Structure prediction request, 418 residues.
Amino acid sequence: MTAKPIVAGLDLGNGYVKANINGLVRVFPSIAVKQFNTGHHTPLAEDELGVFMKDIINQMDLSFSSPLVRSTERRLFGERALKSGLNLEEFDVFARTGKSEVDLSGVLALGTIAADRLYEFYEKNESLPASGKLKVKVDLATALPIGEHKLHAKTYRQKYVNEGAPHIVTFHNFERPVHVEILFEHVYVANEGESAQYGLMLAKDDFLEMIRREAVKRFPNGELDGITGKDLVSAKNTLGIDIGEGTIDFAVFSNGKFNPDASSTMNQGYGSVLESTLTKLQDEGYPYKSRKELSEFLHNDPSPFTKRKWTHVKNVNQSEENRFGDVVSSEVSKVFSRVGGFTEVIFVFGGGATPLEWNLFQKLQSRVAEFGDDNLLPIVYLDSDFSRFLNVQGLYQVAQRLRQAADSGVKKQVVKAK
Prediction:
């Protein structure tokens, strides 16, 4: 059974997947686990389907037939993966191999879309497909780090397009497998950070006001009085610093257009802070096995029983954050030396922005000041809770325009042929 084409923006972050599919936003950890022993699988009963569908991302058991996924093992996702006790499959923030080259990217992208398709079918029919098969066509926008994009964007896109053949995702949660055939009709691979700027340009009023407040509070003498959030996001020459878990992308816009020559990627992100903290804690005898586990512990309020341990872990992590802040600010100097004379606004955003703000903002200010005291350059430091969605919202906006752009291109070719 084929549904109407879906529009998807997928931000496959090193820490979390952010997906916007037909306006529905989902967020879940960028992890999976491979299953090598599936003999004890217990299929869901019919009266359990409703509960499963409400938490499908965290409960699904999938296998893949796709050029995006080379291994054939079944995989678990989300909370079920975290609690399985099996070795986590997650993006290696220190590896030279990029997102476009590892199975996990395909696993997460295809799994997200398959989950959406099955969920949509169940919502309408309150049952699984009798044929055991669903089909879906997709207009997709996704992204790669700037440095990786320059080398691998074309090949990565071709894997999705798959010469017009479908990718097959199989659910193994039920008495009979359910197969979802995914056909990508239009695919765009953006630069990370570039797509976030598109998200900023299309920001709504509440978000624009937050951006204005964030900029103005850094200038207590009124230098930015009268400026609006729209003024800031509409600036033609900007530097976006997208702090992810595995990379930091420095996205430069010149005269309103993305400037790939001046943009760059630093192949470390906030995940490297967590990895360094994890190593030190493991040397001290702490039992954390992954940066995801450590991150969950740090970002939850401690109980009276864990407060002492939490405080120690926090102190170790802040020491690593301070060291990393020096590395980032040094990298900003390199970028700024290329484009600083033209830059009007700096935006700092991404999932790693808020944890680093306590020490990074002052270091960025100092770096900017090195280029002249009269340099009135707003640094808009956006909270991670808001800004982690900038890339995916920008990607969704791009995906919405892909079909129309393709149709327009065909019409232009027809006119030229005449």
Q: What stands out?
A: Residues 410-418 have pLDDT under 50 and may be disordered. The first strand starts at residue 6 and ends at 12. Residues 307-339 form the longest helix (33 residues).
